[in-house]
UniProtKB/TrEMBL annotation:
UniProt keyword terms in alphabetical order: Flavoprotein, Oxidoreductase
Gene source species: Paenarthrobacter aurescens (strain TC1)
GO MF assignments: steroid dehydrogenase activity, acting on the CH-CH group of donors
Keyword Chloroplast: no
PANTHER family reported in the protein's UniProt record: 3-KETOSTEROID-DELTA-1-DEHYDROGENASE (PTHR43260), KSDD-LIKE STEROID DEHYDROGENASE RV0785 (PTHR43260:SF1)
InterPro entries: FAD-dep_OxRdtase_2_FAD-bd, FAD/NAD-bd_sf, KsdD_DH, Succ_DH/fumarate_Rdtase_cat_sf
Protein name, UniProt field: FAD-dependent oxidoreductase 2 FAD-binding domain-containing protein
NCBIfam families, per the entry: PRK12834.1
């Protein structure tokens, strides 16, 4: 069984197990559950208090990229592994020598997503919401970025429902004396014996009463040493560490102000220890941050932002009121929109819409912002089809500092300038743009590619039912008032990380496996040091934690 005791002479806490896992997020829990199921003793270390077990996955919307599922087929979606692989490679645009392992992971992951993934999750009690969503629609032609068809399957119960079966298995192991959980244990370095990684050492932090997601202290009250036959690194990404995000931002052109889409504990600091042990970290400049961030009016962690999941109907304007070019419509190309906005020299942009579009098309990412799906509440879910005055979006309309309402374009422009503390929005130009867009809608046909995209989206049942409003004039008073939403850049995911082979073994710069060392989840770039390449197709982050965590747990267990 895993052991923990205190060295009487030095006050060092000592932990021993077959396998030590650093990080109690989703990939760490999956690895721990898998290794325990294989009969091994497991010790899980995490710098946060127990309240934060499950990590970022708990906060997630629960989106899963899956291919050719019954849910898709019931909606008339024709998908295949070949089509998904084509979309993945077009989006990833692998172009570096160090992408070889990442491409192998991509091929294996698409096979998983089109094969056993759904059945495996269902065997664990994970249900899928029947209405598949369409994220990252692309718009660059058949060989360009984007999902050709909808593949974003929402977990019934969102992120917590993904975490639940693996946490339950780990707690079963705790009860059986085979798994031990060590919170407030901050790993700092890896131990190597005769060329093999055999443990980890670090600080024991003072107890913390911080609730899930809140920043916790870093005052050390002791130290620990953990020994094992294999160590799995599942320490996550860098999104809560803005200094590192800025350092790795391509061209050092990060915006002056950014919101955090993840807790402060997502700091990426342990990667340096893996590098010291010989591990190769690549693709640090590839990151997945969102341009549609808004301030949380009820923040949990520092600079807490929420991402808007938009339908396609809002006008998207840069800070100076210029419409983003096609195909940078809401929901089509996150990275393309982000790059365009940052190049303007401003770190924010605007959605301009009206109340009908807001209540029909805007969703908020995160388990806490979707109480109907998270709570598996069918009655509450029905309110999405008949929006009322008590919805998450309405609460942001009432309380969010980024949300403005007005009865006319000129009044809206004035309020946008007041909020931004500038005079960048020209009222006459905004009014002209809105009326020109309304004229395209009123024509019934038109030359506006965004209006064409809206009409095309409504051919898909999910979009017509709950995600895309019928085309109408923004200025129609029956759909008012007009709304502007200020959008900030929101940090979220690392797309690079430790290079791993398909067994989740960490590789050195020469491509050799480091004995005893594994990595999974975001710390491994979700596999191979960057399975997504430059762009993600969405729904692939949780799935990447599942896939790589399982591989790490299996091989680590088999190796000891």
């Amino acid at each position: 069984m895993p052991l923990e005791n205190r060295d009487a002479d030095h006050g060092i806490r000592r932990v021993a197990a077959d396998i030590v896992i650093i990080g109690a997020g989703l990939s760490g829990l999956v690895a721990a559950a898998t290794a325990y199921a294989a009969g091994k003793t497991v010790a899980v270390l995490d710098q946060e208090p127990e309240a934060s077990v499950g990590g970022q996955a708990h906060w997630s919307f629960g989106g899963l990229f899956m291919v050719n599922t019954p849910e898709q087929r019931r909606l008339g979606v024709k998908d295949s592994a070949g089509l998904a692989m084509s979309d993945w490679l077009a989006s990833a645009s692998f172009d570096r020598s160090e992408d070889r392992a990442a491409r192998e992971w991509a091929e294996a992951y698409v096979h998983f997503a089109s094969g056993e993934k759904r059945a495996w999750l269902r065997s664990l009690g994970v249900g899928i919401f029947p209405l598949v969503q369409w994220a990252e629609r692309g718009g660059y032609g058949p060989q360009g970025h984007g999902n050709t068809v909808p593949r974003f399957h929402v977990t019934w119960g969102t992120g917590p429902a993904i975490v639940e079966p693996f946490l339950a298995k780990v707690l079963e192991g705790v009860a059986a004396g085979k798994v031990s959980l060590h919170f407030r244990h901050r790993a700092l370095s890896l131990t190597t014996t005769a060329g093999r990684v055999t443990g980890v050492s670090g600080e024991v932090l003072e107890p913390s009463t911080a609730v899930r997601g809140q920043a916790s202290g870093r005052v050390a009250v002791g130290s620990f040493e953990a020994t094992a036959d294999a160590v799995v690194v599942t320490t996550g990404g860098i999104g809560g560490n803005h200094a590192t995000v800025r350092q790795q931002w391509p061209g050092n052109s990060a915006p002056d102000y950014m919101l955090s889409g993840v807790p402060a504990s997502v700091d990426g600091e342990f990667l340096s220890a893996a590098i010291s042990a010989g591990g190769a970290v690549v693709n640090g400049d590839r990151m997945w941050h969102y341009p549609e961030g808004i301030h949380n009016y009820d923040p949990v962690w520092p600079n807490h932002g929420i991402r808007i999941l938009p339908g396609p109907s809002s006008l998207w304007l840069d800070a100076e009121g210029r419409q983003l070019p096609a195909p940078l419509f809401p929901g089509f190309d996150s990275l393309g929109a982000l790059r365009h906005i940052v190049r303007t020299g401003h770190g924010y942009s605007w959605f301009v819409l009206n109340r009908t579009i807001a209540l029909k098309e805007l969703a908020l990412s995160g388990s806490e912002q979707n109480p109907d799906l998270t709570g598996k509440d069918v009655r509450l879910l029905a309110s999405r089809l008949r929006p009322t005055s008590d919805t998450p979006i309405q609460r942001f309309l009432d309380k969010g500092i980024d949300f403005l309402q007005a009865s006319s374009p000129s009044e809206l422009a004035s309020r946008m300038n007041h909020l931004a503390g500038s005079s960048l929005i020209n009222a006459a130009e905004l009014e002209s743009l809105i009326h020109a867009r309304d004229g395209q809608v009123a024509s019934g046909l038109g030359k506006d590619p965004q209006v064409s995209a809206i009409r095309a989206a409504r051919r898909f049942a999910t979009d017509k039912l709950m995600r895309v409003a019928p085309p109408h004039r923004l200025t129609d008073p029956t759909h008012g008032p007009l709304i502007a939403i200020r959008l900030s850049v929101l940090t979220r995911k690392s797309l690079g990380g430790l290079i791993t082979d398909l067994r989740s073994r960490v590789l050195d710069k020469e491509g050799r496996a480091i004995p005893g060392l594994y990595a999974a989840g975001e710390a491994a770039g979700f596999g191979g040091g960057g399975i997504h390449g430059y762009r993600a197709l969405e729904g692939t982050f949780l799935g990447g934690c599942l896939f790589t965590g399982r591989a790490a747990g299996r091989d680590a267990a088999a190796s000891v």
